[in-house]
Design goal:
Blueprint (H helix, E strand, L loop, with lengths): L10 E7 L3 E5 L6 E5 L2 H13 L4 E5 L7 H9 L3 E4 L2 H10 L7 H15 L2 E2 L4 H28 L5 H30 L4 H7 L7 H10 L8 H7 L8 E2 L2 E2 L9 H15 L4 H11 L4 H22 L7
Parallel strand pairs: 1-4, 4-5
Antiparallel strand pairs: 1-2, 2-3, 5-6, 7-8
Helix pairs in contact: 1-2, 3-4, 5-6, 5-8, 7-8, 8-10, 9-12, 10-12, 11-12
InterPro entries: Transp_IS110-like_N, Transpos_IS110, Transposase_20
Protein name: IS110 family transposase
Pfam families: DEDD_Tnp_IS110 (PF01548), Transposase_20 (PF02371)
């Protein structure tokens, strides 16, 4: 009888990403080293990974866009890359009593989180990435316009106030241009357009909200109702110990989908819809308005997830 080769365990490599550098944690040892966050540094990291001679999983946290070039290089080299949720990594560090927050400690926590949970696979999706970039630029321009408008209002009439108002108007134009670019992109996409149109059959979900949900919730239709609610931070967590039971609370998750679902629910409450009827029923049964709105957000998201999963438009049934 011949020996059967067992599959080799992957090496977990954690990377802490900053604007200038990458702090890299070696697998199974408490040792780190760093390279520049630029193509030369990416190639050095990839070469080191290839020399390990075993399957490798690279884990990293979203870092405000500084990770995009590295991720593209790793995926191009055929390396498995996983997202590690920053809030959950911080919770792990707190639970383990991490004495401080340094790059080396962060790398250790990312690696430990990755080895315990597996992380979330990073997929190449150029169209969705471009859509996300346009929507991010739109949101930045909107926030800049709002800040400039507030500053202008605080000034007395005069040249300074007019200058800020002009800058705010330009930011508004940029916001509109990025919104048009995002909508044009998703409308022209064979992969994204059917989902975009289907989402808009739901009350409260317009073209922009549908585009944002596609950009920030790529899992729609591919995960369970509980999982999608958890991803958006809308899954209630029970707090119970012995005879004591606290209120269930929602926490964590992705803030942008939550903001969009809130806007969709508020739009529904202004008209006549099933969402409004659900909200009124919950409030009538003693639920605080904020809790009722959160429940409606969760129900809407679960329904949208089922619509995409089943390739079905919104129905009143």
């Amino acid at each position: 009888m011949g020996w059967k080769m067992m599959p080799q365990e992957p090496a977990y490599v954690a990377v802490d990403v900053s604007k200038a550098t990458l702090e890299i944690g070696e697998p199974a040892v408490d040792r780190t080293w760093s390279v520049r966050n630029e193509p030369k540094g990416w190639r050095k990291l990839i070469g080191w990974i290839e020399r390990l001679g075993r399957p490798v999983v690279v884990g990293l946290e979203p870092s405000g866009g500084y990770e995009h070039g590295l991720i593209e290089a790793l995926l191009e080299a055929g390396i498995d890359v996983r997202w590690c949720d920053p809030a959950r990594v911080r919770a792990l560090a707190k639970a383990l009593g991490a004495p401080a927050k340094t790059d080396r400690i962060d790398v250790g926590m990312i690696r430990r989180f990755l080895s315990q949970t597996g992380g979330r696979p990073v997929r190449r999706d150029p169209e969705r990435n471009e859509l996300r970039a346009s929507l991010s630029a739109r949101r930045a321009a909107q926030e800049a316009a709002q800040a400039l408008e507030a500053q202008a209002q605080a000034l007395p009439q005069g040249d300074a106030r007019q200058a800020l108002a002009a800058l705010a108007a330009q930011a508004r134009l940029t916001m509109k241009a990025q919104e048009r670019a995002a909508i044009a992109l998703v409308r022209a996409s064979q992969a994204l357009a059917p989902t975009w149109r289907r989402l808009q059959t739901a009350p409260g979900v317009g073209p922009l909200v549908a585009a944002e949900l596609i950009a920030h919730m790529p899992e729609l239709g591919a995960v369970t109702s509980k999982a999608v609610a958890k991803l958006a931070g809308l899954a209630p967590f029970i707090r119970k110990s012995g005879q004591w039971q606290g209120r269930a609370v929602c926490s964590g998750g992705r803030s942008r989908p939550r903001q969009l679902l809130y806007l969709a629910v508020i739009a529904c409450l202004r008209g006549s819809s099933r969402t409004k009827a659900t909200y009124q029923h919950l409030v009538a049964n003693g639920k605080p308005p904020k809790v009722a709105i959160t429940a409606c957000m969760r129900r809407l998201l679960v329904t949208l997830n089922a619509m995409i999963r089943d390739q079905a438009d919104w129905t009143l049934a």
